[in-house]
Design brief:
Layout lengths: L2 H24 L2 H14 L4 H11 L2 H12 L4 H11 L1 H10 L8 H10 L2 H13 L3 H29 L9 H16 L3 H16 L7 H25 L1
Helix pairs in contact: 1-8, 1-9, 2-4, 2-9, 2-10, 3-9, 4-5, 5-12, 6-8, 7-9, 8-9, 11-12
Length: 239
């Protein structure tokens, strides 16, 4: 499709097409949000505290990763370091997707930064790199982020109030893991991403016995370092 065709479509068309593209991926957010909501209640959070964390942090992996530390009264520096380590991938995602926001104002960029999720990155990256019309790109991205946010807050709230009702035999934790794998597989199609996933996942398993759950943080750092090394080696090989 030519750039002139996109120019005629504009923001509304971007919203429509982004929603259609993102809808199948967004279904996986439902069990994940339910699990996070129930986990926060189980950790002793009040509904207000749980929703406050859900809105401010808006990052399921970081929330679940830090909850055991909060419940165990771990040092604040460790809680912050764990949350930052678990969200380091968004720094990489932001750098990768930044060219897709050329011609878009600073205010919108701040909002889109808050909306950035694994699913939004996976669905939007290619389109944002290919399309010239900034209005279409903005609409395509914003709807994925806004829909993710709405689903997340809604089903996390349901999980908060359903923590004592949903039977444990439903194994929602397993469903959330499957949802994350569905997001991971498309992003691991390149060799650097695959290397990062293997090293990070393997490291988390092997280092699970470290005190204060530092094995997860260490595994994340190892995975990122391995991914960058693989990318450097790949670029050097093709040069």
């Amino acid at each position: 499709m030519h750039a002139t065709d996109f120019e005629r479509r504009g923001f509304t068309a971007g919203v429509r097409e982004g929603f259609i593209a993102f809808l199948p991926v967004s279904v996986g957010l439902i069990p994940w949000a339910l699990v996070v909501g129930m986990a926060m209640t189980s950790a002793g959070f009040s509904p207000l505290q749980a929703m406050g964390m859900n809105i401010i942090v808006f990052a399921g992996t970081a929330q679940l990763g830090t909850l055991p530390l909060i419940a165990d009264n771990a040092p604040l520096w460790l809680i912050l370091a764990t949350g930052l380590a678990l969200n380091l991938r968004f720094l990489i995602f932001s750098a990768g997707i930044a060219p897709g926001f050329r011609g878009i104002g600073t205010g919108w960029r701040w909002l889109c930064g808050h909306f950035l999720t694994d699913g939004s990155f996976a669905v939007c990256y290619d389109k944002l790199m290919q399309v010239d019309d900034p209005r279409w790109r903005l609409g395509y991205y914003v709807i994925t982020g806004a829909w993710s946010w709405l689903l997340w807050q809604t089903f996390a709230l349901i999980g908060i109030f359903a923590a004592g009702i949903v039977p444990k035999s439903w194994s929602l934790e397993f469903m959330a893991t499957i949802a994350l794998i569905v997001l991971l597989v498309p992003m691991a199609k390149s060799r650097p991403m695959l290397v990062a996933a293997i090293v990070g996942g393997g490291g988390a398993v092997m280092l699970r016995g470290m005190p204060l759950r530092l094995g997860v943080v260490t595994a994340i750092c190892l995975g990122i370092a391995a991914g960058f090394a693989a990318e450097h080696w790949q670029e050097k090989k093709t040069a």
